[in-house]
Every structure is written in C-alpha cells, then in structure tokens.
UniProtKB/TrEMBL annotation:
<keyword id="KW-0378">Hydrolase</keyword>
<dbReference type="InterPro" id="IPR036380">
    <property type="entry name" value="Isochorismatase-like_sf"/>
</dbReference>
<protein>
    <submittedName>
        <fullName>Isochorismatase</fullName>
        <ecNumber>3.3.2.1</ecNumber>
    </submittedName>
</protein>
<dbReference type="InterPro" id="IPR050272">
    <property type="entry name" value="Isochorismatase-like_hydrls"/>
</dbReference>
<dbReference type="Pfam" id="PF00857">
    <property type="entry name" value="Isochorismatase"/>
</dbReference>
<feature type="domain" description="Isochorismatase-like">
    <location>
        <begin position="6"/>
        <end position="149"/>
    </location>
</feature>
<dbReference type="InterPro" id="IPR000868">
    <property type="entry name" value="Isochorismatase-like_dom"/>
</dbReference>
<dbReference type="GO" id="GO:0008908">
    <property type="term" value="F:isochorismatase activity"/>
</dbReference>
Length: 181
C-alpha cells in the first residue's frame, strides 16, 4: 500500500454510456478497466476520489444539473463514505477543493482514469502535474469520441492516441492497466 498515492476517477457518468446524451466510443471497455482499478484501490485502502462534472445550465447538452445523466455510472458507483467532488470545468482542480483534499491526505502521486481523454483527462492530468503531483494515466481505462478539425473527421481512436501521446510526452506516465503495478 502506498498512502502517498490516490486514484482519481474522472467523469464516468451516465451521459457518456449507451443511451446517454453524449455517448463515448468504447466506454464499456474503459469503464470495466476503471472498475478493476477502483477495486484495487478499495482493497488496498488507498485514497480514491470520484470526480463528476455538472454544468451550471439546465440547457447544457449533457451533464445537466440534477439529471440522471450527470450521475456517476453504476459500474464505478461510489460507496458510502467515498469522496465525490463535483466540478463545472474541464480541469478537476479549478474552483474545487481537490488539491486541498489530496494534500490533507499526504498524496504525492495520482493515478487517473475516466473520460474524456481529450478534455477532462487532459485538463486534470496537466493541472495535477503543474501542481507537482507525479501522475500515471491508465490509458485503457479512459474513453473519448470522434471529433472534427478543419473539416476533417478524427476517429475516437486517433483522438485518444493523440491525447495519450501528448500526456506521455511531458505530463504523465501513460500505462495500460495490465502494466500498472
């Protein structure tokens, strides 16, 4: 057990799953890996924090305030007593007490999984590194969706790969779950 290490599960919420308002590519596979990671942290007694995004406006395209879509998915449902932080921005640290809670726990290293690879995983990982945390991102426990840039369709796999390669270049150690200790 490494008490200086904590798990951040970011935005694994109903709207990203089949039938949700903003379904992600391969969310089921990523969620299964995230659930396995969550079980490992629970079994070891290491700190873990669930992050959930909720937009302020009821007119938001997804994660509307108080909606079922904004709830954390059942596959990684928090247990009673587990910390859940609600954010309104891409960066999990922005205008939340995440950093204060981690520092109070003595956390120096973060393991990050969740969604979306190119948004909140990027934002949270970069902010964590900038705040001095050592970061590991479990890439197969993260998901995203296709995007468009300059009139060109970018597949979800390419969005994910570009996101993970950028994080691995300077912000985090990027690993598959099977390679994570």
């Amino acid at each position: 057990m490494n008490p200086a290490q904590a798990l951040l599960l970011i935005d694994l919420q109903n709207d990203y799953y089949p039938g949700g308002a903003y379904e992600l590519d391969r969310i089921g596979e990523a969620s299964a890996k995230a659930a396995e990671l969550l079980d490992r942290f629970r079994s070891s007694g290491q700190p873990l924090i669930h992050i959930r995004h909720e937009f302020a406006s009821p007119d938001a395209p997804f994660f509307r305030p108080g909606s079922d879509g904004a709830a954390i998915h059942e596959s990684v449902q928090p247990l009673p007593g587990e910390t859940v932080i609600t954010k309104q921005y891409v960066n999990s640290f922005r205008e939340t007490d995440l950093d204060a809670q981690l520092r109070a726990l003595g956390v120096k290293q973060l393991v990050i999984a969740g969604a979306m690879s190119h948004m909140c995983i990027q934002g949270g990982t970069r902010a964590a590194a900038d705040l001095g945390y050592q970061v590991e991102v479990i890439h197969d426990a993260c998901a995203t969706r296709e995007q468009e840039f300059d009139g060109r369709r970018v597949t979800a796999a390419d969005v994910h790969a570009a996101s993970m390669s950028a994080l691995g270049f300077a912000y985090a150690k990027v690993l598959a779950l099977k390679d994570w200790k």
